[in-house]
Amino acid sequence: MEEKVIEARNLMKSFGDLDVLKGVDLDLLKGENLVVLGKSGSGKSVLIKIMVGLLKQDSGAMRVLGKDVANLGVKELNKLRLKIGFSFQNSALYDSMTVKENLEFPLVRNIKNLSRKEKDKKIEGLLDSVGLPQSINQMPSELSGGQKKRIGVARTLILEPEIMLYDEPTAGLDPITCMDINNLIVQVREEYNTSSIVITHDLTCAKVTGDRQAVLLDGQFDAVGTFEEVFPHAEDKRIKSFYDYNFINS
Amino acid sequence: MTEKAEDRKPLLSKKIDKFFTGLADAWNFVRRFFKEVFIPPYEFKEVVHQCYRIGVESLPLIALTGFIVGIVFTNQSRPSLSEFGATSWLPSLISIAVVRAMGPLVTALIAAGKVGSSIGAEIGSMKVTEQIDAMEVSATNPFKFLVVTRVLATTFMIPVLVMFTDFVALMGSFLSVNANENVSMLTFFIQVFDAISFLDIISSVLKALLFGFTIGIVGCYKGYNSSKGTEGVGRAANAAVVMAMFLIFIEELLVLQIVNAIRMM
């Protein structure tokens, strides 16, 4: 039986009168890339924010690496967070820090006994692997959207997480840069042996990066399976229209 | 009429609710500051960095303002005193005015505009661009790293800036007195220190600590609770200045009553 690194059971979350998640069940298996698709506002980002404890579910259970996230104390939650890399939609780079300082920030705060040389080596290695060694001393404001995403991914990888969560990795990028980011997601899984959840509404990204697809509709997962199982022959009109309106069909 | 009154009632009720909810939020924010400030890990390096930003970078503006205040206040007071042939009292008058009230007040108002708005905008922008969330998921306590350090820095640096303003304002005043009344620096400063008491200096420093805390906590609170994108950041910066200035005037009034009561004892 394959090991589950994330398990969500009957997850519910509302904001005021708006029910966003209405009983979500989800498993992420070790070593797989799971893509969560859905329209804007369907609760995709809410789901991964619950996984890292940024939001708390109203009811249901969320277990990450065997820990019940909602019931963890601050110290245990922080310990768990070090095993999860979260790549934000807008990269969320600290704009008062250089690229190097951005990468160094999680490192110096969580690993105390690293020498200057070891830190530099780690940072340079990561910048090489995301293809941006020349940006080390740049400020985030000097980077393009795609470069920011890459640095954001590099910053999450610096603590060598077991799980990667990508929130809309290709949003707002041109098609060529999108392809670069998609390839980076695949490369990260291969190089760092991570299990990942990719939140997107971009079907190209879903097809390239995902082993399995899960479509979030009306607060629940409507279809889960490989890309071929879920999309080309979908009977549900909402999933079909999702497929038809994407470039992948043209 | 009755219908209109009924229509208004929920709105008024909502506004009252919002006011008290805001008050409770602010209170919880202050309580959280006092809780987090004593719990390790301590962010000494960041406190020093913020002290540098708040203190050193505000120095030119504070110095210029203090200098102008000293000259203007001296020149404005001279005609009234000269009517009674009492221009020799100028150093004492300026000393009392600057040390007791103008120094702390001018410094705090300038700092509220410069530092308070910058803290509100910086933290607000970090909030809306998810940088605070990013800090949290990398196992760093953003409240401690962003809020506690900034509030400590403003609380420590405003008294230092006030002392600097006092000195620069008195130097401005001395230049004016020296040019018009031909008083030496030694005589001027002997009169200055004769006029003020230990209580004046202590109350000025304590008031500056309070103003510094207010500027920091209001800027951080407004920034930390900002929303609605860039518009929210602008609002946070603006509200940080307005609220801090308003509170500074109220605190000035309260401290004045307390110090006067002590003086009478």
From TrEMBL, chain A:
Pfam name, any one: ABC_tran
GO molecular function annotations of the record: ATP binding; ATP hydrolysis activity
UniProt KW keywords: ATP-binding, Nucleotide-binding, Transport
SUPFAM superfamilies: P-loop containing nucleoside triphosphate hydrolases (SSF52540)
The UniProt record lists the keyword Ribosomal protein: no
InterPro entries hit by this protein: AAA+_ATPase, ABC_transporter-like_ATP-bd, ABC_transporter-like_CS, P-loop_NTPase
Residue ranges occupied by any ABC transporter domain in the UniProt entry: 6-243
UniProt key word Cell membrane: no
Protein's name according to its UniProt entry: Phospholipid/cholesterol/gamma-HCH transport system ATP-binding protein
UniProtKB/TrEMBL annotation, chain B:
Classification via Pfam families: MlaE
Keywords from the named record: Membrane, Transmembrane, Transmembrane helix
GO molecular function: phospholipid transporter activity
GO cellular component entries: ATP-binding cassette (ABC) transporter complex
Spans traversing the lipid bilayer: 54-73, 93-112, 151-177, 236-259
InterPro entries: Permease_MalE (IPR030802)
Xref: PANTHER family: ABC TRANSPORTER PERMEASE PROTEIN-RELATED
Protein name as annotated: Phospholipid/cholesterol/gamma-HCH transport system permease protein
Source organism (scientific name): Algoriphagus yeomjeoni
